[in-house]
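RECORD CONTENTS
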Amino acid sequence: MKQHLGYGRWVAGKRSKWVTLLVWIMVVVVLTIAWPSVGSEEINNSPNLKEHVASVQAEQIANREFPGGSGIPALLVWHREGGMTDEDIVNVQHLYALWGTNPLPYQDSVPPFDKMPLPALKTLLSEDQSTLVTPVLFSKGMESDQLKEGVEQLKSQATDEIGSDPFAVGQDDGSQLSARVTGPVGISIDASGLFKNADFKLMLGTVILVLFFLLFIYRSPILALIPLVAVGFAYGLTSPILGFMSQKGWIVVDSQAISIMTVLLFGAGTDYCLFLISRFRQVLKHEESKGKALLKSITDSSGAIAMSGFTVVLALFALLLAEYGAYHRFAVPFSVSILIMGIASLTLVPALLAILGRTSFYPFIPRTPEMEVERAHKKGKPIPIRKPDHDSRIGRLVVSKPWTVVIVTVVLLGGLATFSTQVRTTYDLMSTFPKDMASREGFDLIGEKFTPGELAPVKIMVDTEGKEDTLGEKLAALPYVAVVSESERGAQNPNIVGYNVELNMNPYSTEAMNHMPDLRIVAEQALKDSGIDAPVDQVWISGQTATQYDTKEVTDRDTRVVIPVVIGLISLLLLVYLRSIVATIYLVGTVILSYFSALGLGWIIIHYGLGADAIQGAIPLYSFVFLVALGEDYNIFMISSIWKKSRHMPLKQAIKEGVGETSSVITSAGIILAGTFAVLASLPIQALVQFGIVTAIGVLLDTFIVRPFVVPAITSLCGRFAFWPGKYTEMEHQEERGQ
């Protein structure tokens, strides 16, 4: 207790409160000036797969042996309803003549369409003569902004040549030629644009939502600003620290990580602030001195806040064990931001509350009974009737009918959890785009007029050791293959033979991914038939579909590794904090059940409500890490209250009062946290929409079912065994025997 009081005086004493505020201001200002912001150091094209992964090695072989395909293709999809005219095709030839002699920024090469006779070029039209696909290859390793610069000039020159902007024409407009940029370049530009536009909208939407909920719940404009100020300072410190780390090459940060980090800071940060603020308001109703009230509030809540923050930090750090780049890159930004937010909640927020005192809650200022009487006499008004501090119908229910509560809630959550077994995942990037986005419109048109596999062919390479090559015939005979190119010989090793294979399905689909092992088996068998005894290391498959297959394999591996580690770390922290094996087991178990329930209910909404065939493959692991860590926050805060009260009252009474004491703040915090994640659902990026839905649902289930009903009811059923083998068991047992 003395240690807590000492810490409280250090950060929120009569003089130290100003020192604390000044230190925060100085640190944020100095680091902001000295170090770059995280946004200025973001890198959005970092590889997600490591060098040892099969598709990465195959890509290296392809670049070495078949350098002609070394550029990144932008596929221009030209279309006119009713059929393209000769004038349309000639205009396309003129453009390719221009790009051949005056390359676009960052252009690698273009096919010589301008040198082809018009009849020959017309053979490349779709069957109904309405659509033509022509590639422009850009240099590899370019940022999305650089690719966009090249494409913008391409569009400008096309507009000048044609006399109107074909990229602004609707595809169903039969009177004009339309064009769309798709393929890897178009997809990269559109994906980057979505996240860039999302950052500001996300920040603004989150601030407005948090401010609205704080004003609605607490009806105090000053109080509503305190968490936002704390989050602002935390972001102001987090940004240059992450920017510095990124500048030094210690970490890689992308725009998606920054977007979700912003949501996490506002949601979790506001929660931590409210844990202290709510306790301060409760104590002010019994303590006239604001200084003493604040010190007691810090004493009562700082342990739970620190434990909650540390739980989230460690859970997020577990992502460092992931091999998939996107998972791994999220670990440090998320963990550092929560760590700094936790420090702000335990230092800056107490200082602000010490400076403002009771004014923080204006106009509904909490006062002691004596202060209420004195104020009423001065104003000549009747003395207001005070409501009981810890009156809770839910608390009485979970104590009086624990078995009923447990059975009903577990059946409900378990029923929702069964739907999680139906969840299907996809790694199809195109499905995350709005249907009216240019690259998706172009892709859909290719799939409609040609074969979808033309958008992203699969490159299959084999080392024949100079023996007979029969692979082309075997590939052409496969029912899921639409086109097989003529064989090519390697530039450095002529024994290596390559084929471009176009599938007759969406190359980004799960169905296409599942055929990658089949293609490898066919290639290996072809080598065996040619007399090669050990063909396993002499087959390479590259291309977007192969990359997505390896992505699924790597992320599945990460899921198997990260989830047990997260559960283990959180269990260990709870065990140390609560000193109870029994409580640790049911606290972790309820949050895991809540996660699967959220995944199940999320699937019902996303699949049956929104019509999505699958959710993005990364969402289950992301949601698990966030929900298990953040959900445990509420359990820790409530169980801490019950544990402390059980020292000087019977356990059932402690449960009733603990549920009542924490219900309002946890409900408020849960609504705000769920709301911040729900803001993601307003963005035009399906992956973030789905992540926002599942995570918001999980937070609400924790807030309104697990925390108020399931956990207290199980604690009531366990009785003094809930503390086993902690020291509270004997203390509580003695008190009950003495009554």
